[in-house]
């Protein structure tokens, strides 16, 4: 597609056909165009153009925004503030259970083939709904975390969950375990991708002992009520998640002070980026999060 045709308000394709251009995201006009694909979707034609966007330089962080990922919620913060974000595991699990119940009910041979076909379509729609819930949450939450870090020039510090993910894979299969694993994978992916896109440093720390070690003196905690811990050595007491945030921050700051290497991104290199409405890659998770 030639630039002069875009300036005139149309795109010319093979065969001499001209399509009127309604509009596009002008934020990427300055970047080199790469592959273009014409896609027909829901009665409309979309011209998908990949752009080569240079990777921004990472700034020198003034502090650390620690992120602790749990089943029901994630916690982000440091010694200054703390925020909690609810995870969609419960909502996604609801649709997974609906799909499983339908599969058990209509798997018997007494049901006609056309009935089973309709039920199969319903089951697939439930599975898609669960995946879309997790993906939408991960994309929005990853962007929100990176924007929070950018606002104060923080580095994002997270636990290295590779060991956790591998250990979960070895457990007996269940919907909840698979959804938790998928949620971890997606959220980590989008945190790293958005950080790479916006030039935000990412630091990974060892997750061992982050919620059982005192962030003040390093001693082991003792239980002091529901999800509350107390250090018998220095008297520090707090919520388990708050303690994890403080330990992640402390370990990340130690890495920064020692000149430790920043975490290698789990996101792909930012070279060819298809300009969708949010400026995010098209089909970014394909082939990376299969269970």
Report a brief summary of the structure:
This protein has 291 residues and is an alpha+beta fold. It has six helices and 13 strands.
Count every helix, treating DSSP H or I runs of 4 or more residues as helices: 6
Largest sheet: 5 strands, mixed
Instruction: Please write the string of helix (H) and strand (E) elements.
Output: HEEEEEEEHHEHHEEEEHE
CATH class annotation of the largest domain: Alpha Beta
What is the annotated CATH architecture of the largest domain?
A: 2-Layer Sandwich
- Rg, Cα atoms, Å: 24 Å
Q: What topology does this entry show?
A:
Layout: H1 3-7, E1 10-12, E2 18-20, E3 32-41, E4 44-52, E5 63-69, E6 73-77, E7 82-86, H2 89-106, H3 113-151, E8 154-159, H4 162-169, H5 175-198, E9 202-205, E10 221-223, E11 228-231, E12 237-239, H6 240-257, E13 272-273
Parallel strand pairs: 5-8, 8-9
Antiparallel strand pairs: 1-2, 3-4, 4-13, 5-6, 6-7, 10-11, 11-12
Describe what this molecule looks like in 3D:
There is one protein chain. By secondary structure, the chain is α+β, with helices and mostly antiparallel strands. It folds into two domains: 3-52, no CATH class; 63-86 and 139-268, Nucleotidyltransferase, domain 5 (2-Layer Sandwich). It has six helices and 13 strands. The protein has helices at residues 3-7, 89-106, 113-151, 162-169, 175-198, 240-257, and strands at residues 10-12, 18-20, 32-41, 44-52, 63-69, 73-77, 82-86, 154-159, 202-205, 221-223, 228-231, 237-239, 272-273. The chain has a five-stranded mixed β-sheet with strand order 7-6-5-8-9, with helices on both faces. The protein has a three-stranded antiparallel β-sheet with strand order 3-4-13, with no helix packed on it. A three-stranded antiparallel β-sheet has the order 10-11-12. The longest helix has 39 residues, at 113-151. It starts with a helix and ends in an 18-residue tail after the last strand. Residues 268-291 have low confidence and may be disordered.
